What does this fold into?
Amino acid sequence: MVKYIESKENNKIKHAASLKESKYRKEYGEFLAEGKKALELALSAKNVKEIFTLKALENIPNDITQYVVKPDLLKKISLTGSPEGIVFVSQIVERKPKRLNKVVYLDHVNDPGNVGTIMRTALAFSYDAIILSEGSCDPYNEKVVSASKGAIFQLPILRAELSEFCKDKTVIVSALNDKAKDLKELETPKSFILVVGNEASGVSKETLESADIVTKIDINNIDSLNVAVAAGILMNHLR
Amino acid sequence: MVKYIESKENNKIKHAASLKESKYRKEYGEFLAEGKKALELALSAKNVKEIFTLKALENIPNDITQYVVKPDLLKKISLTGSPEGIVFVSQIVERKPKRLNKVVYLDHVNDPGNVGTIMRTALAFSYDAIILSEGSCDPYNEKVVSASKGAIFQLPILRAELSEFCKDKTVIVSALNDKAKDLKELETPKSFILVVGNEASGVSKETLESADIVTKIDINNIDSLNVAVAAGILMNHLR
It folds into this structure.
């Protein structure tokens, strides 16, 4: 169904714009995403509530309303100014992981670009889920959604503390620690949880204490790698 | 030497603010950087022209002027609002690479965050230089500088076309091509140039034609990895 909206005061626009804020995402259980590719993935996950677009799109199921709007209205609800002219609302779905043998755990990872990029990589390497600690950024933040390139519609996303998952899994913690084992020497355990830490301070002391294996990527000249790059190298090795 | 600036119309402030634009960076051969860590690395590379700070810093060589300013002035020249209260001007230096055996080449990589992150990774893996094609983003853009975490002060950065470097090197191109060889099977050549491509369209046709080896990272479920993550995995393998 295609409808037209012209007023900035329209309730649908106001509602969508409110989803830029974390508290409203929580209240309504919904979030915003943008672009053609993300829309494709969201449609195939049957997770599109409504679409705001500059011109009506083809091949959209009839029970999803497309609101055709002017560029200034789209800007109000878009993060990037939406070069592709498509913003849509999806529901926050608790996707139950089929198994939890290969999991990446984010310990206070703050930057939404990093969190989204790690989601994208985790999906590409067929990880079973991504788990975010309290203190990691909101996974439905628009910047996370954008950087995830649609992975957010496929990858199970959990919020939990590490201790809930430690028991029956090998906990592998990435830390630039003198005693850390070089990643190259690491074999992939049958069931594991890979932990990466905060951009500035790394993993917490407690996390380090619950590690079965501490590992590091051998680097020179500089203190550390970007956390999304490090996570990518780790996940590529630990398949 | 410590001086104080209070006026927004001060020429030093105006000059520094102008460096947010590419054309003035080119005209003056200077760029802006921020933060304590970057300052340390810039100082050790002897590449700090002047510093703008909320309060005078210790251990700064006396021939470098520190301008102490109010937060609103610092904001004018800062990208991030400078949480650490330090912005400084450095010179664009053509650092001659000692050798060119291990080089990463960016073919139309546009996103400044990605370019800066690749610099950081290239330095961490002791690459000899990073080369940017025409059409890749300005390496002295503030967002590149920020994401490079100081690597910009140590890594030789060149602007050139791939053809200038092809002759005596193995050209390894990363592309999600059916004929591409799995990265895992690749041995590191003695002298090589690793090419990664544009975020949306990958490497150009021409680039693909000049490849000695085309390689890809084995992924599932999703079209591609983030280019900085892919470059990280490739550089970690090709050491």
User: Anything to note?
Assistant: The first helix of chain A runs from residue 11 to 18. The mean pLDDT of chain A is 93. Chain A has eight helices and twelve strands. The CA atoms of residues 35 and 63 of chain A lie 20 Å apart.
